Amino acid sequence: MQHYKPAYVTNVDVLTYAGNIANLDGVVEEHGERYEFFKADIANTDLMDALMTEHRFYAVINFAAESHVDRSINDPLNFIHTNVIGTSVLLDCARRHGVQRFIQISTDEVYGSLGLTGKFSEQSPLDPSSPYSSSKAGADLLVLASHRTYGQEVLVTRCSNNYGPYQFPEKLIPLMIIKALRDEPLPVYGDGLNVRDWIHVDDHCAAIVATLFEGKPGKVYNFGGDSEMVNLDVVKTILDRLGKPQNLISFVSDRLGHDRRYAIDSSFAQRELDWRPRRSFKEGLDETIQWYIDNQSWWHPLLERTGRY
Question: What is the mean pLDDT of the chain?
């Protein structure tokens, strides 16, 4: 499945602040007429209906989301629009137009926070802590209800923190790499001892392909990288790799409702889908740091455009 090439892909993206058309450089040249980009809001029913009328899609994979927790605290309505209404529109359109499979890409944050031990399984209760995770939990429930109500062939995936190349620099790892490269203070929330499980984007993509072809309708699949790390340790590792002093770390006021620990139990997905994470966090982080060093021409324009960093 790692060499899977779909017959045809339509990429729908409204290109918000985090969207970057440069991420698609070379895709058209490589895939030719098998690839199409369509700029649109997934919450626009008329546009989604028109698109699904024009094409006979086998599957809809809903990656689209507002995903930055801080932004959700400041502006929850944007997250409800895209994550809840947008998911509902896509789901309903897919059902009306006979799309065979609908894959909802979700997050471990819908489960809330863990203590010092234990991991989230697919049976863990939903206990979201932020407008972001609440909007994702609501979308997941709409998707699963569509299976129960209409028999729609849906699947939900929930993964731990992604990292890798091309990640917008508001997320922890790219933000810390870029600030370290610029010798700027690295802001760390609270005491920095919050724990996250990290999964490389390539492992996550492989998990989604496995779900698309091997997943059972109506099921939830958890994907993690088996790489739990304290946030402060991640930041210190980045500084060490770049040869930067640790006094660049700047502790800032903690995020509202900041979940203390996430950890994913992927054993069900590994059994059912014959999937497992391949990339160690050390290897993946080293490669990611090098990518941001080698691709400053990619992230410099993002900093200028947003004016935030």
Answer: 95
